[in-house]
Amino acid sequence: MKIQLASNYGFCYGVKRAIEIAEKHKNSFTYGPLIHNKDEIDRLNNGFNIGLVEKIEDIKNNNAVVIRTHGIPKNELAVLKQQKNKIIDATCPYVTTPQNIVAKMSSEGYSVVIFGDKAHPEIKGVVSYAQDQNNAFIVLKSEELKELPIKNKVALVSQTTKKPEDFAKIVNALIKTHKEVRVFNTICNATFENQDAAAELAKKADVMIVIGGKHSSNTKMLHSISQKDCQDSYLIENEHELQKDWFQGKTFCGISAGASTPDWVVQNVINTIKEITQ
Predict the structure, then answer these.
(1) Can you name the CATH fold of 2-9+189-276?
(2) 76, 122, 237, 239: which one is catalytic?
(3) 267, 214, 275: which is closest to 244 by C-alpha?
């Protein structure tokens, strides 16, 4: 079995930065999962005593609180500060960019359109920076724009992990119907590179393994992209989910990994594939 890693995969700058920040603050808590990878969160908990709090009401006064890479809503950040907690901000700089753009353009009277998933923590944080919440709209498809009361002046940003071609569809729909459209491409470069590399490898492989958290938006996108050129593409969180029959009759296994997937998990997967295909 030939095993080949994608030319770009795994940890992005924002995730590396967040983990380094967390490791420097032992005995702290993260508000929400620091990244979308359970194995790495468990490692931080076991090795650095970094806890996880899911609800803001469970955070007591004067705690050391690490803000997750995806950021949090503006009002929740204000609550944490009012409680006199020690705030350790590990929000990815690529995420704070759309936050700042939304705040600025909203204050200048623009309608704000955000291309992204409403339920994703990054988008919940970004939209909270709009000065007028009634003039900020989250969409996933261009068809949704027709039903929205968007002003002629509109500013557009994207969730950092979305596909550029899908973002372009929103841009094209807006410029056909609105006089002034300010487009801010806030998709992360690491997302481009990982997606292009996965697509290239999937064209050559007869089985693809994409490693990452099941709740990770960018990992799910890598899996979707891989499936287009390699039907036998599987999304797993770690080596324990591998199944021997996936590799029967296969000769070339391609591997990609989401931006929150640590190298040690990737290596464990490679080692297990070698064992079960001997």
Answers:
(1) Cobalt-precorrin-4 Transmethylase; domain 1 (3.40.1010)
(2) 122
(3) 275
Look up the pTM and report it.
Answer: 0.83
- In the prediction, which pLDDT does 218 show? 87
Region 57-64: mean pLDDT is 84
- What the block records as the tokens of 270 is 């490679």
**Residue 147: active-site member:** no
Q: Are 85 and 78 in contact (CB under 8 A)?
A: no
Handedness of CA 215, 217, 220, 222 (dihedral sign): negative
Residue 251: CB partners within 8 Å, gap ≥ 6? 1, 2, 206
CATH top-level class of 94-183: alpha beta
Order of strands, sheet of 51-53, starting from the edge strand that comes earlier in the sequence: 51-53, 29-31, 64-67, 86-89
2-9+189-276 and 94-183: same fold?
A: yes
State which amino acid sits at residue 116: G
> Are the beta carbons of 214 and 237 closer than 8 angstroms?
yes
- Picking from 194, 212, 210, 190, the residue whose alpha carbon sits closest to that of residue 253 is 210
**Could you read off the pLDDT of 181-206 as tens digits, one per residue?**
999 999 998 888 999 999 999 999 99
